[in-house]
Write a structure and sequence with these properties.
alpha+beta, Beta-Lactamase, 15% strand
């Protein structure tokens, strides 16, 4: 029995030693396996925070090595995509700044208006044409473009009709009211902007004040009319002179001069 008890104790001791050894091996193995997984997790967390310079070393375990390779490839693609996106954003920023500079410094009035008839965006030149102190004042003041600016609101309806038919219109002229109530002549080039379903988003275009040109044209027409009248008068004078110089007229005039008026009326 003593021998049995001793063997039992030895067995229990060996079992405990084996258990401790197995647990140690398990702990070491689990750490050996989980450590690269934790590195991948940490790298993924850093990648999510914007640190794209992530690279995971290869591992002896095929599955973990495959995961590391996939992660490295993804990180490389993301880095390339972000660089490309940064370049495009920079190009877009420069293009937007250039457009904004052109928009603000253009001599012609530039606008964007909604289908409901309100200004969405105007530049300083357009505000100046209509007598407003700033683009913001003009946007806030004009509630209905067709009714408030057009001397003849039907022309605004005609403009929208032409835009709906042709999408683009050039050299459309109309009379418009300024802020102070004065009337000016406007020439507009405009186009309609639509979405992918061909629904109207807004109208945009360029505006010029052609009042001086219209006055000059009217003055030129008046001068041409006066010149035509003068030319017609000179033509008539030449015809009269040619008629009076003819031999027939001279003979008739001589006969009239030879007539005795008293005798003529007495004979009557």
């Amino acid at each position: 029995m003593a021998q049995i008890h001793k063997n039992t104790q030895n067995t229990i001791f060996l079992c405990l030693v084996a258990l401790v050894f197995a647990m140690s091996i398990g702990i070491v193995t689990s750490r050996w396996i989980t450590r690269p997984v934790l590195r991948v997790s940490k790298a993924a967390d850093s990648l999510a925070k914007g640190n794209l310079d992530q690279n995971i070393l290869p591992h002896i375990i095929i599955e973990i090595d495959t995961l590391a390779s996939s992660f490295n490839g993804m990180a490389k693609q993301l880095k390339g995509s972000f660089k490309s996106l940064e370049l495009k954003n920079e190009e877009l920023r420069i293009a937007e700044e250039n457009y904004r500079s052109i928009f603000e410094n253009a001599l012609e009035g530039i606008f964007q208006s909604s289908p409901e008839g309100r200004f969405m965006n105007v530049n300083s030149a357009l505000a100046n044409i209509y007598g407003y102190d700033s683009p913001e004042e003009m946007i806030d003041s004009v509630m209905n473009i067709g009714k408030e600016l057009y001397v003849n609101p039907e022309q605004h309806i005609e403009l929208e009709r032409l835009l709906d038919q042709h999408d683009v219109i050039k050299d459309f002229e109309y009379q418009s009211y300024r802020k102070d109530g004065g009337v000016i002549w406007i020439q507009i080039d405009a186009r309609v902007v639509k979405d992918s379903r061909h629904q109207v988003l807004y109208y945009e275009g360029m505006v010029q004040d052609v009042t001086d040109r219209k006055r000059q044209d009217e003055e030129l027409r008046r001068q041409l009319e006066e010149l035509k009248i003068e030319i017609d008068q000179q033509k008539r004078e030449k015809e009269v002179a040619r008629l009076t110089e003819s031999s027939y007229f001279q003979e008739v005039q001589q006969e009239i001069e030879n007539i005795d008026i008293d005798e003529f009326w007495g004979a009557s």
